[in-house]
Amino acid sequence: MAKELDHRKNGYGSYLSSLFIKGFRKGQTTADSFELFYVNTHELMSLNNEVLLNSSKISSLISKLPDFIVEPYFQKLIVNEAQSNNEIEGVRSTKKELQEALREVKNVEPKHKRFNGLMKTYLYIDQIDAFEKVQDFRSLYDELVADEIKAEDRPDGDLFRQGPVEVSDGQVTTHIGVSTEKNIIASLGALIHYLKDDAHPPLYRYMVAHYYYEYIHPFYDGNGRTGRLLVGSYLSRYLEKYSAITFSYAINKNKAKYYRALEEIAFPLNQGDLTFYLIDMLELLSTGQKSIIEDLELSLIKLERINEYMKKEKWSKDGDARQILSFMLTINVFIAENTVLSLKELMGYTGKSRHKVNQAMDCLVQEGYVEVVAKKPKSIQICDGCIEKILSL
User: Which CATH architecture is the domain 2-295 placed in?
Assistant: First the structure.
């Protein structure tokens, strides 16, 4: 075993991290200490290239979206990601609640609402600065989850927790975090140093950092959410924000794989080898990317058919109705079916007067494309079966 370990740690494709962990077995830490390392295998390199190609494809597809749909589409992904992140941690949230928090964050003077910090962090994920000092981890925690943490689980040290923390799967202890705030600060300092080490390929580096942060477990609660945002912030700058924003969504669909990958690293026989963990993480990242690619490709095909339909002679005489219907159909295809839009919202989106929007709405109602669902404020939505009918023509 010693010979094989030496071969893996000192081979041409091996990377040593200078990050050390304690072994963990049968619910307890062991006396062993291991340096985290990985081997850049053919499978790992292939996955790395796959993620980069997926990212390039996502950027290309996003560039084909109508300008007005780009921001709402990203916001849809944010809500999906935030809900997944909460579900992983057993935090209950509804899409409606998260959408309201997101709208509030964008206000000039936002009211304090549950999940405001979470939605704000996701909305500006590509603007989170690289971590330069250990206080930055506390700042992320304060922005992201502090308002959601129970009083008894809030940090009791200067920045982080002072006492011990254990992670359980409901039956047995699966991890014990680094003990004492002094050791937490030292470990986070080592993590910052590692994040700056350009000798390690970026994707590997960010996923290693994610594991080490979870290993440290600097807080009593909120480590999972802050840890996934940590890696997401780096991914958003290296790839693009769409890939980064689906990481939790992909994990939530395969939580068993995610937790198994995290837990196996500290097992003494593993000797700190991160190779298989990195394979699992890049597979999850690629899975999330592919879900976006599939969604965008299908939606763009639908948009093409809608645009062809809107070129028909019948629309040449009523440009206002055509613009509003096209807008509503596009929203339904890319964002959400049965989206309800008020007269005021349609005025804002189209830049048309109240009179013109009212006329167009009445025309579309009469033609059977939309229906009025509220009178105060006047609001409409696409009729059931309308999109399917248009796409089949």
Answer: Orthogonal Bundle (1.10)
Is 217 considered catalytic here?
Answer: yes
254 is in an annotated binding site: no
Domain ranges of the chain: 2-295, 312-392
Average pLDDT, the chain: 91
Give CA 360 to chain center in angstroms.
38
**Of these residues, 175, 200, 210, 217, which one is catalytic?**
217
- At 151, which helix (H) or strand (E)? none
- Cis previous bond, 377, omega within 30: yes
Tens-digit pLDDT profile for residues 74-118: 999 999 888 888 888 888 888 888 888 888 887 766 676 678 888
**CATH number belonging to the domain at 312-392, selected among 1.20.120.1200, 3.40.50.1220, 1.10.10.10, 1.10.3720.10:** 1.10.10.10
Residue 189, annotated ligand binder? no
Residues with Cβ < 8 Å from 253, sequence gap 6 or more? 287
Name the pTM for this structure. 0.91
- What residues contact 285, with CB distance under 8 A and at least 6 apart? 51, 203, 235, 243, 247, 250
Q: Is 211 annotated as a binding residue?
A: no
2-295 and 312-392: same fold?
no
Helix axes 223-238, 135-144, angle to 10 degrees: 100
- Residue 259 assigned to a binding site: yes
**For the chain, the helix, strand and coil percentages under 3-state DSSP, each to the nearest 5:** 60, 10, 25
pLDDT in tens, 289-311: 999 999 999 999 999 999 999 98
Gap between the Cα atoms of 32 and 267, Å rounded: 10
Whether residue 224 is annotated as binding a ligand: the answer is yes
